[in-house]
Amino acid sequence: MSIPKATVERLLLENRDHNCPGHEEICVRIQAVADLPTRFGEYQAVAFWNNSDRKDHAAFVHGDVYEKEEVPVRIHSECLTGDAIGSLRCDCRDQLTEALTRIGEMDNGVVLYLRQEGRGIGLVNKIKAYHLQDTGLDTVQANVMLGFRPDERDYAIAAHMISSLHVRSVRVMTNNPAKVSDLEGHGIKVVGRIPLVVPPNEHNRMYLETKKRRLGHLLEVEQLDVLESGSG
Question: How far apart are CA 44 and CA 204, in angstroms?
Fold first, then answer.
């Protein structure tokens, strides 16, 4: 069961008449909702406008999440090279596929797709970072060399998207504790974390090791065993 049609109409009307706070505040509005049958199950695509980065972010909603508690939520940052092209340098496409598959098998859930390419540094700079990684730097060192923080992403818009859908509390599908603390800092009630286990390959082993050792990601036993043994 998806968000009922009457509720969708209520959300669209509510957002059409939504008056944003002062210019310094982030304002997020639902702009459109449509059914989206996928190979991962039945979803609804929800398109958002915002006044901060003015990029088109989206939520892919499975089941009815309106006013629901403990909704599984995956926050996925755009990765053109991984999501669309199938790059093996990262685990982005595998994580997105796994999240959509698992949520599609649950009663309800949301995948937020944020336009924060390359941990927020953009596509061009991500390719520059790839070039630096080809010389032996890890992802953190490459970002710093380009003048960025190791992770430039912000989840304020994601928090507002969750609030716009009237989700009361969430279980975040992530290995990244920063996502949990950031959402909580923006007023989202987080009641749990769902690990997202994706086995490494020979091309992204260093990438995952850097996530664990430099960025504090909570990789699961299945991933750590492979990384520590050095096997593919």
Answer: 32
Cα–Cα distance between 171 and 207 in angstroms, integer? 25
pLDDT, tens only, 22-40 = 545 788 999 999 999 999 9
Answer yes or no: do 80 and 193 share one domain: yes
Among the options 93, 119, 153, 182, which is catalytic? 153
188 with 209, same domain?
no
What is the tens place of the pLDDT at every residue in 4-28?
999 999 999 999 877 776 545 788 9
The whole-angstrom separation of Cα 74 and Cα 7 is 22
Catalytic residue flag (residue 151): yes
Rounded-to-integer distance, Cα 177 and Cα 198, Å: 17
CA proximity to 123, closest of 73, 66, 61, 55:
55
Residue 224 and residue 199 in contact, taking contact as beta carbons nearer than 8 Å: no
Which residue, among 77, 102, 91, has the nearest Cα to 171 in the 3D structure?
A: 102
Q: Are residues 218 and 178 in the same domain?
A: no
- Structural domain containing residue 213: 202-232
Q: Which of 116, 110, 34, 50 is nearest to 83 (CA)?
A: 116
Residues paired with residue 75 on neighbouring β-strands, in sequence order: 112
Q: Which of 83, 94, 138, 151 is catalytic?
A: 151
pTM of the model: 0.88
C-alpha dihedral sign at 95, 178, 47, 81: negative
Residues 129-163 have pLDDT tens digits of 999 999 999 888 999 999 999 888 889 999 999 99
